[in-house]
Design brief:
The chain is mainly alpha-helical. About 70% of the residues lie in helices and about 0% in strands. It folds into two domains: about 140 residues; about 170 residues, no CATH class. The longest helix is centred in the middle third of the chain and has 70 residues. The protein is flat and about 115 Å long. The mean pLDDT is about 85.
């Protein structure tokens, strides 16, 4: 298989982080308007075809057993890639042996007007014999490498032909499977829906059901920010899919992929903190808290909010200075230490932004705790 020298451009990385959630939100909302999907989706089938068609998962998604035929072809591609890696090492080793034999022959030559000793003649004979053998081994290694590359090329052509053929067959396959599932659903007994039971330890915050115009405005910002960055997790599925295929099928591992993903998740962690706080999903030591009344919980939250705001404001001012140090107007600013060299200032800027969102959510919760304290109830 050919190598993949692709390196993600910086503009494409940042553009994907901005645009992908917007596209995902559009498709999710459109699906919600359509209701619960019934039967297989042609869009999902093509997504399986695009991302994992080499394993036949698009056909397995449609419950078509012909998908299993892709698996041995892909395993053969992996095998040839592994053999090609070994053959490349053989070529490098034998090429070095040829160079060493030529160098040894030059050193073993007997200068003119010099009486050759038996040791010198023996060394020359060995050098002259080693040269043809080293060249023969090198030519054999190159021949083996070319043969296995040919196998890999034909397997790649076979896989590509199978995928292109299925690209045209997928609409018909999806339509037939949808009809089969609709017929099965019509003859199936009614579905029993289990009751929605909240997890133990969640929904303990008494302010979750309290709403004011100011707090709703603050929380709408945090909810939208949290839902926006939540879709970044989907990007990592495509990213690590590319890394696995590039590494094992094309022998082209990447550095930029791993760096781009842990930077993305770091930014997601900072921006989603306020959203998790709004949903009451942060870790809480609630051995005593769950036993308090609504008023008692509000008092406990007001007292502990002092420590919360000390932490949040410390994080904001510290991270703001940290982010500004990485920003250099008129230049690229601080960049990563790898060959990808992505800018760090957008990543570090997410820390004070996340702290600010967390502070706003803390303010919203404090307002509602005070209201509960004044009213004596939620």
């Amino acid at each position: 298989m050919p190598s993949l020298p692709f390196v993600l451009p910086h503009w494409l990385y940042w553009g994907t982080l901005v645009v992908f959630p917007l596209v995902a939100i559009y498709f999710v909302r459109r699906e919600h308007r359509r209701g619960v999907p019934r039967g297989p989706s042609l869009f999902i089938a093509y997504m399986f075809w695009l991302c994992s068609g080499f394993m036949g998962l698009h056909r397995l998604y449609l419950k078509n057993n012909w998908g299993f035929i892709f698996i041995p072809v892909f395993l053969l591609i992996l095998h040839t890639t592994d053999v090609i890696r070994d053959k490349r090492e053989d070529v490098s080793r034998t090429r070095a042996a040829v160079g060493a034999a030529i160098s040894e022959l030059d050193h073993a030559k007997i200068p003119p007007n010099v009486n050759a000793t038996p040791q010198m003649r023996e060394r020359l004979a060995k050098a002259e014999a080693a040269g043809p053998k080293a060249r023969s081994d090198f030519e054999q290694a190159e021949t083996d490498l070319a043969r296995w590359r040919g196998y890999s090329r034909w397997l790649a052509i076979l896989m590509a032909a199978m995928l292109v053929g299925d690209a045209f067959l997928l609409p018909g396959l999806t339509r037939r499977q949808r009809l089969r599932e609709a017929e099965q659903l019509a003859n199936a007994p009614p579905e029993v829906v289990p009751p929605d039971v909240p997890q133990v330890g969640t929904q303990e915050d008494p302010t979750l059901s309290l709403h004011t115009r100011l707090t709703d405005a603050i929380e709408s910002v945090n909810i939208r920010a949290g839902e926006y960055v939540a879709y970044w997790a989907v990007i990592s599925v495509f990213g690590y899919y590319y890394e696995v295929i590039a590494r094992f099928a094309f022998n082209s591992p990447t550095n930029w992929l791993h760096e781009s993903m842990f930077l993305m998740y770091g930014m997601q962690y900072m921006l989603a903190g306020a959203y998790a706080y709004q949903c009451d999903q942060h870790v809480r030591v609630d051995v005593l808290y769950v036993k308090f009344s609504v008023r008692g919980k509000a008092i406990a939250d007001i007292i502990t909010s002092v420590f919360f705001f000390i932490f949040v404001f410390t994080m904001f001012f510290t991270s703001w200075r940290f982010a500004m140090d990485s920003f250099n107007p008129g230049s690229t600013g601080e960049v990563s230490f790898t060959e990808w060299g992505v800018q760090y200032w957008p990543v570090k800027l997410m820390m004070p932004i996340g702290a600010a969102l967390l502070a706003l959510q803390g303010l919203s919760k404090l307002i509602k705790d005070v209201l509960i304290l004044r009213r004596g109830r939620g």
